[in-house]
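tl;dr need the bound structure. longer version: we got a ligand (magnesium ion) that a collaborator sent over and nobodys looked at where it sits. i said id run it. heres the input, straight from their email, havent touched it
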Amino acid sequence: MPRLLSASDPEAISEAVSALGRGAPVVLPTETVYGLAADAANGEAVAKVYAVKGRPAFNPLIAHVSGPGMAADHADLSPLAERLMAEFWPGPLSLVLPRRKESTIAALVTAGLDTVALRMPAHPVPQKVITALGRPLAAPSANRTETISPTTAAHVVRSLGEDAPLIIDAGPCDVGLESTIVAVEGDRLVLLRPGTVTADRLSALAPLGFAQEDGGVRAPGMTKRHYAPSKALRLDAKTAKPGEFLIGFGDVEGDETLSETGDLAEAAARLFALLHVADRSDSTAIAVASVPGEGLGAAINDRLRRAASA
Ligand code: TXA
Ligand code: MG
């Protein structure tokens, strides 16, 4: 069994920091999803993360920083990048920025690109760990590549099994969806992955240019099939067909519901957990009710489309 330490255990932070300092990965909670973290300056430690996830090495990782000061050590910050950090950090927004030559982040983290993705998590556990370590943490979601993202420690154990390193357990993640990723190209923004920091809020800060890109090129991790359960997934369902587990929303009741009241934040926080429940149930297939596309719904629908893609 993998070793779990509660975040409230007085030794949790120091144990995580000492393991990371030795080059071992550690699973840490964040406000979005659980992350499989490694010292971003240690290429061998980062290689272990790729190995545990079964992740193609050309797919770069997000480096998690303690704040704008640490970000400035690793990336060139344009005035627009500074404004985004002031407005949205700490929180679920990752910025893809030009990488500084002086940056000590291992090339394996950026997969050889001349840009680096940086995020300052709002969760107190990674904040304390990064500050104590004094270096960024590279951390993808703590699940095997292409499977449903983990929003509890139990999801991590189920996905990584015996390969899971030390896990710091802080209960279910508040946001439940991975961070928004936006590339900052001078005074322009390109949205690479939708999330809870919505396109509307970002474009308001970039009057000179805002574009959305359906992944693949600039965010190589945005492959079409992603977040996938092991069973077939049908979208926009109103009722369950025989053998299906129906995940409802609003008026569509289902076996479980994303949100009875049609609340998108509640739906985002429950999405991955309910996909895990449906995947483990006796049903032979999964159906999901339609979720409106505005605001946070864009990020929820993005994950659902990828999960349903065969
Ligand atoms: O909420 C999150 O972002 C979580 C938690 C743990 O922080 N992390 C996460 O990481 O979702 P991951 O590895 O699952 O997703 C990272 C995404 C990938 O799609 C990758 O292609 C993209 O970030 N990415 C990383 N560096 C990039 C870069 N330099 N340019 C473009 N895309 C990049
Ligand atoms: Mg992931």
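gonna send this back to them w/ a short note. Residues 232-308 form one domain.
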